[in-house]
Amino acid sequence: MSKKNVQDKLLIFALGGVGEIGKNMYVVQYGNDIVIVDAGLKFPEEDMLGIDIVIPDISYLTENRDKVRGILVTHGHEDHIGGLPFVLKNLNVPVFGTKLTLGLIEGKLKEAGLLGETKRILINADSEVQLGSIVATFFKTNHSIPDSLGVCLDTPEGRVVHTGDFKFDHTPVNNEFADLQRIAEIGREGVLALLSDSTNAERPGFTPSESVVGTNLEEIFRKATQRVVVATFASNVHRIQQVVNAAAATRRKIAVVGRSMVNVVSIAGDLGYLNIPEGMIIEPEEVNKMAADRVVILCTGSQGEPMSALTRMARSTHRKIDILPGDTVIIAATPIPGNERHVGRTVDELFRLGANVIYGPGSVSGVHVSGHGSQEELKLMLNLIRPKFFIPIHGEYRMLRHHAQLGESVGIERENIFIIDNGDTVEFQGGNARKGSKVQAGNVLIDGLGVGDVGNIVLRDRKLLSQDGILVVVVTLSKQDGTILSGPDIISRGFVYVRESEGLLDEANRIVTSTLNKLMNDNVNEWASLKTNVKDALGRFLYEQTRRRPMILPIIMEV
Amino acid sequence: MSKKNVQDKLLIFALGGVGEIGKNMYVVQYGNDIVIVDAGLKFPEEDMLGIDIVIPDISYLTENRDKVRGILVTHGHEDHIGGLPFVLKNLNVPVFGTKLTLGLIEGKLKEAGLLGETKRILINADSEVQLGSIVATFFKTNHSIPDSLGVCLDTPEGRVVHTGDFKFDHTPVNNEFADLQRIAEIGREGVLALLSDSTNAERPGFTPSESVVGTNLEEIFRKATQRVVVATFASNVHRIQQVVNAAAATRRKIAVVGRSMVNVVSIAGDLGYLNIPEGMIIEPEEVNKMAADRVVILCTGSQGEPMSALTRMARSTHRKIDILPGDTVIIAATPIPGNERHVGRTVDELFRLGANVIYGPGSVSGVHVSGHGSQEELKLMLNLIRPKFFIPIHGEYRMLRHHAQLGESVGIERENIFIIDNGDTVEFQGGNARKGSKVQAGNVLIDGLGVGDVGNIVLRDRKLLSQDGILVVVVTLSKQDGTILSGPDIISRGFVYVRESEGLLDEANRIVTSTLNKLMNDNVNEWASLKTNVKDALGRFLYEQTRRRPMILPIIMEV
């Protein structure tokens, strides 16, 4: 460990991941050394119309690019790795991850054309990495993807522990246990600050082991007299392994369907994270040639995503697979908030096709468990680590609050718990901690190829357009005498069904004409004034007639 | 009972309420007599952009208006009465309801200017109503609003029972029990067909009694050292009564906040459905003058609705009430699918203001129970009625399917169970039943004052506009020689942030100009062709550059 400089401080903050679910990015800085933990994306909220994904604002990091020593990636989920292609484009620093994590990252970097120029460093739970004055070591955790790590950062100011996403699974599918001994040792040696996963901080008790899903899957496979379709998160390699095991036990072959599922099965298989018996995987084209009770279809679409494999099957628009009466469809996932209606619609469509659908909360369906620890596990982590300071991370504000309460309940002083927003810094010096100044943080919206070119004005316009549509009013005026040479023409989109509203639009036309003529007679002929008057008169009329407020775009040309 | 005509058939169908949650409207027709049960509205689905509410298509009823004998209303919820103002505008028939139900309906009719011309007939559980050849009697049920009824329709072809929305609450708040004896008697006398509420058909067990909420509320009120805010559905009069009781027991006064809450408390109070001690209600303005531990604020906003009282308080934009640190906020409701994120955001904001928030599923929070019976209650109803034929109603397709399975499980023949879509008829004759022909059914969208003037094209345009915005391209051409006199001018809304994309729009301009000039040189000068070419060239360019597909509106003027 490097020696301590009396003037240097330890700073901890999040650029994403607190007060939200997604775009996780945490920063630990000591003096001139910055270490980043994760670089995730977030899916857009419902008011971010037309946006594809959201990534963190990394202005602070690009302004301090010479200090950034590397990005440690805890595991391969999108909300932890999905921002990497955008971050690395602006910040060429080494990326550290375990084998599966790097495997999933490499696919992304390849697509972004960044594979060659990015230094990728393979680590495992026993690695030690020197990052300037900061030394990183790691510990194994359980999560819904293999090879997940927690991070221990020894800084001259003290030890910082970041749990990553975790649960304690005492019967893990791959027999890779969370390293309780190592975690306890880290705690015994003394921890200044703990950053811990708050996702399930609202949930009492323990999260069940992933293994219980396997038992239930096998029972369902056994009872099914025809084909079985299983939709789950592509990245849940443990779940996929259990589907493979249940298929093997019931002498079924597996067809893998859906781009990300094919991708993950291929990467995880190549890297040795999936144990698939020889000859078990069949092509989707072969499904129809096999006896129905010898087939499993493993696919994407557990969130009812409109373009996913399961949704296409449910709508009978999948090119290769049809759902047949008597098929069993298992949705091995819980809807993420916001997706409930999509999932419900998919379930309805599957039932209509005659399928037997197994779905719903894991506690009812038995085919899903969370990858995040519940309150008892969070308290266990707090008590294993016994930090002086505690920063709940990875969750909406209410989850952070609940997690803070859990911290208090196990004896951490209330004033030693920091609930932060993205950009809030916590400063540590001489064993004390306090809120520091804010660094820039926020959402960068990605729409198509555009990164950050859609801001509040564009979103506000999209919202307006989505509610009542638009009317474009075009008039050509004479340069000489201001008389109307052509128009007004009114074109509407998303406002009313035009054929049934001719009278309304004719009247609107007359109002524009008379407004303009009146202004001309009064010798008002600045464009701005003409436009404002047309907009106001027309807006008033339309609101009176329809109680709608379409966007009005007056276009006045002069020739 | 009128005599039977050998040629007449009994028809049962839904114009709303099956394959969906909302806009309940069921029709029972025997020969020339049509009886309608309920006329509800539905809130728009997320792809119905800009739509306010959705009501059933009643073309079949208006085409057969001389046969319609009346509308029986089972209870006063919006999804059962909200369509009445629109239906009654086109179909002036008598409306039958209990005191509270009529009270709530009258408010709506008054607003719509229909109160005078609508015949409203007060009924109670003991009423008997002759509707042509059909005789309607009623039975008391439990639901999350008082005065809820089930309907028994004796037709010459046999008896039809419609449960309305129901649960079996053995300890009802108002001591009004579901009339088990009467329901059993109806069943013993023989029932041809049962239509029964499927809302909770996916849920095992029994729905808890509303009374358990009262006990928990009182405990929370007692522990709270400062103000208590309770948000719940305005129409849940039982819940409101329990808030009143808990306030009385803990010597607190109640301020009622939010338009619909004020409305319901006033109507239910006037009609004797609420027992509020003298002097218990205070004005919202008085809240700040009272000791914090003597106050309860009863308000709307349990679904996180953007304009509701609780949401405004959470955002500190309510004119009269501020949330103060230490206040206790109880959200006594479960989010309706689609509202989870709104509720979550409200909870976060309340926590940020320092409130203690009690929320979440009723099984965790203890402050909410459903108004609909779970599987054991649905089976109890099936076994009390023991119908020959069974039509599950009131629910999404998956709920109807589960309910059908419950029907089978208690011994109803599978071929005697009809899962229907809106518009599907079931025909009964001579004790037999079969699917008949379809009648017109569907969604009528209401947007502002427009009823049904927003159709698929308008919605598709709103969707397009919401995703990538719009570009309007305006050019004025010379009538004589086709040269460009003015423009092209490109105006965009909701596409890109213009100031940062000047280069892109300049290039777009050049592409439009060169496309037009090329066409002119080739002597192509029909407008349709000019417009299509500009649209295609510009669309291609923009997609290449941005991977977005804004709506493009070329406007070509000639002078």
From TrEMBL, chains A, B:
This protein's UniProt keywords: Calcium, Cytoplasm, Endonuclease, Exonuclease, Hydrolase, Metal-binding, Nuclease, RNA-binding, rRNA processing, Zinc
GO molecular function list: 5'-3' RNA exonuclease activity; RNA binding; RNA endonuclease activity; zinc ion binding
Designated name of the protein: Ribonuclease J
Keyword Repeat set for record: no
Gene that encodes the chain: rnj
Protein's cellular compartments: Cytoplasm
Similarity comment text for this entry: Belongs to the metallo-beta-lactamase superfamily. RNA-metabolizing metallo-beta-lactamase-like family. Bacterial RNase J subfamily.
Binding residues for Zn(2+) 1: H75, H77, H80, H143, D165, H394
Cofactor note: Binds 1 Ca(2+) cation per subunit. Seen in 1 crystal structure, it is not clear if it is physiologically important.
Catalytic function, reaction form: 3',5'-cyclic UMP + H2O = UMP + H(+); 3',5'-cyclic CMP + H2O = CMP + H(+)
Role of this protein: An RNase that has 5'-3' exonuclease and possibly endonuclease activity. Involved in maturation of rRNA and in some organisms also mRNA maturation and/or decay.
Domain spans labelled Metallo-beta-lactamase: 22-217
